[in-house]
Amino acid sequence: MSVIILLLGASLIVALFFLFAFIWSVKDGQYEDDFSPAHRMLFDDKTDNE
Amino acid sequence: MSLEKFSYDNRTVKWFAYATMFWGLVGMLAGLWAATALVYPDLNLGYAPTTFGRLRPVHTNAVIFAFVGNGIFMGVYYSLQRLCKARMFSDVLSKIHFWGWQAIIAGGALTLLMGYTTGKEYAELEWPFDIAITLIWLVFGANMLGTILRRRVSHLYVAIWFYIGTWVAIAMLHIINSFEMPLSLFKSYSWYAGVQDALVQWWYGHNAVAFFLTTPYLGLMYYFIPKAANRPVYSYRWSIIHFWALIFIYIWAGPHHLLYTALPEWAQSLGTVFSIMLIAPSWGGMLNGLLTLRGAWDRVREDAILKFFVVALTCYGMATFEGPMLSLKNVNAISHYTDWTIAHVHVGALGWNGFLTFGILYWMIPRIFSTQLYSRKWANTHFWIGTLGIIFYVIPLYWAAFTQSMMWKQFTEEGTLKFQFLETVTTIVPMYALRSVGGLLYISGLVLMIVNLAKTIRRGTFVADEAAEAPPLAKVTATYGKAHWHNWIERRPVQMVIFSLVVVGIGGILEMVPTFLVRSNIPTISSVKPYTPLELHGRDIYIREGCYTCHSQMIRPFRDEVARYGDYSKAGEFVYDHPFQWGSKRTGPDLARLGGKYPDSWHYNHMLDPVSMSPGSIMPPYPWLFDNRVDKGKTPAMINVMRKLGVPYPEGYEQQAKADFDKQAGQIADNLKRDKLEIPADREIVALIAYLQRLGTDIKVSEAKN
Description:
The complex is a heterodimer of chains A (50) and B (706).
Chain A lengths: L1 H26 L8 H5 L10
Chain B lengths: L3 E6 L1 H27 L14 H33 L6 H23 L13 H23 L8 H20 L2 E5 L2 E4 L3 H36 L6 H15 L14 H13 L1 H13 L5 H6 L1 H23 L2 H7 L3 H30 L7 H33 L12 H39 L5 E6 L15 H5 L2 H25 L15 H12 L14 H7 L34 H9 L1 H4 L21 H10 L8 H22 L9 H11 L3 H8 L1
Antiparallel strand pairs in B: 1-4, 2-3
Helix pairs in contact in B: 1-2, 1-3, 1-15, 2-3, 2-6, 2-13, 3-4, 4-5, 4-17, 5-6, 5-7, 6-7, 6-13, 7-9, 9-11, 11-13, 11-14, 13-14, 13-15, 14-15, 18-24, 20-24, 22-23, 23-24
């Protein structure tokens, strides 16, 4: 079934994209801090904080 | 470090918010209409565009791509700017994105009502729209990536990961599933046939749920729930694991829509296994959202916004537990083709997507209009009406599904089927009526929200460009040792966009070309022959009228189905079906072996007035098929396109086709005349009868020979 090959290929391409994105994100230090990002996004508004 | 002054674009956000509300109302009203037509078939109005088979695709497409689609863009445009501390990359792209998307929706709805459809569920829009969607999606991607690259916050918050994942996956799914060969401006045939078409379609269909209804909304959840609760997300680390696990596993689960069909068994098993694995990341995400509200539960009691979010997450949890259960073959044997599937998707659509959207709108609209919500009390009322609406919608459908499935499978002591198909339908019609009540309640809540927000908007002042300031992102990031090559691209947004498009493009091309050149090796059955020209026209009519929204063409290998419909369906029977028409719901009986079951005159009378042949039937009448003439001029082009797609019509058959058409149509007209039914041979009903009488008969020919 050639379509299985197509889908496996397409799925693998997406999986590979995410794998590379993952490696990049680790190397970029996206996960070195798992505390402040969660808090930082709460404090970005000047005008609309109640 | 000096602060940079800039502004957030709220205008595009506002437009998308208005579009979300408008299309939400339109899409849900279409759904209510179609659902109520199952109780009162007169609501089909005897008029083609208002018949269930055409309204249902309008409903599904409007809710998924117009309501939820605009909801995604609204939330992404609002949160992305604030998370990146940057204005959207380009105001022009924002404008093109907004108006382009609305034009696609309006044009799509119109063409669907006119009967232009590919006949593939949730991908019904015809090829010019498929191209337009691709282009607008690229605009959205460019605008989003450009913003990310111009961000003033180095760290990408988890919501942004979900937005990027959504964009990449949808681009790929849409392009691969939309491969089709145009016949005319608004008609094309799927590139794939039969089993392959089914697999691609449900790989797409399931991941439309995954990457259009789920991942972007999870991104929105990770932004708006912490914001509304004013609490950080329960576990940031968990959210990252959630993202990677979910996107990786989701893409494989599609075959669970084809359990017990002619799809090879190993593919079915693969779909089941990955579906079960999906429970873990799905529930991880749900719990992460719910636990974000720890210590804020006292506020949930009063705050309608948090109530909407809590129910949205609960519905997400229920739907993502139910989904894997439905993917078990033994459960699927009961649930498939029944209203259980409809109930399941509506827990997701009404609960998860709807309620999350409502919560976001209530939270966001007052902020961009710098005012307070007009009435908190109304918002609470909306919450309760909406929740009751969901309950009244899904519980009758679960009940209907169990009842009907059990009735289908009952045998008498003598070993014959206990119930006629029609009896199983008339039994559950009261449940359909209750479902409409639920839908009506839910829509009433939506209307209340629109009024509430309109009053909020009237008393507020719109902040089109919200001033903000932030330090610029350090141009020279601290590098350890050698600078990575990727740094070069990161600083060049336009190149990055182009590169990412090329990367996505290469993958598609590399996988596509060999697939179309290498012939498939589905087990072929020598007696299965291509459709005759008249049958091809009939098939087009079958697709145009959306027959597949209520009738399946796939007999599963169960005792009751074989007894009711005939021998179970084989993969080789569908090799010339561009597109496949297996369907996913049996509001009416399966048609895979309809051919030869009734005389031509039965079909004639049944299409003109279904109740005359099956008293109590809820099928709409199709009177226009008796007036419309078949466009015979198209026949050579149809044969030509089908041959290009691999259907083995002999060279030069185009010349012969018209004569064959006339001969077969004449025979059917003569048959009808013998039963005192006068109809010219060039009417659409004749072509449709030809197709219906062909269904599933090829395999009987080989049996007769043996």
